[in-house]
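#lab-general

N.A. 3:47 PM
ok so I finally got the sequence cleaned up, no stray characters, all 259 residues accounted for. can someone with queue access submit it? mine expired

B.Y. 3:52 PM
send it over

N.A. 3:53 PM
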Amino acid sequence: MLHQTHTDGNDNFNKWVNESLAAVCQHVYFDEGNAPMNASMNFTLGNIYYERNIGIVEQRLAQGGRRGNTVTEQMIDEFEKTYKSDKAIWWYSRNCFLYRIINGALRQKKLEVILYFRFFLMDVCRQLQSAQAQYLEYFEDNPILKVYRGQLMTREEIIYLEKFTGFTYSINSFFSTTRQRSTALMFSGVTDATALRTDGCISVLFEIEADIRLKRKPFAYIGHLSYFGSGEEEVLFMVGAMFRLTSTEYNKVQNLHIF
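B.Y. 4:20 PM
back already:
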């Protein structure tokens, strides 16, 4: 089980992992005597998204996405001509260059690309803040939202993650979840007809309890904002969302690891 949490910047440790958590070994950071590793990178992923002096035009941003692909170039042209701040999540959720470039830059800490995308990151953040505030108005008496995320991981990654039960994780890219457990199970691969996978990957389900009153790193249901609509019941967490891993479980029948 993962519980959403927050920090005032003085935690005894921070663990930085990418969206898929597949490279968790490469994104672990400790401080105050707990084996520091590349701690100088933390300030960027922790603060850059709230930069207010945007000043970067869409054309400069889009130059990084041109790769001689006609479809991609058409989407970039459409983005340059039609993008508005209230369509940020719509564009992010679309299967196009933005999703790939942004999350790739965040995972790989490509600061120049991140700087180009400051305005877009801020627009997504504002939309999430607004949607979260609206949600809180309706569900103030029931502020805990349970969401799920399914994916595949290697056995080594699972063992490594289990070692850090009780630790706090900060996700260094956007983190997509769903309100539907069945949808998450589909993404985990547990519903595949093949019981034994040949690629060495294992089905993993993350069960997350998030408090909609925590506003530092916004998150919200985005069905009404998404390119794909409400079909996947998606709840999107902003870059830097923090979670504490409180328990692990193994479902032998489904060959499913639950965090």
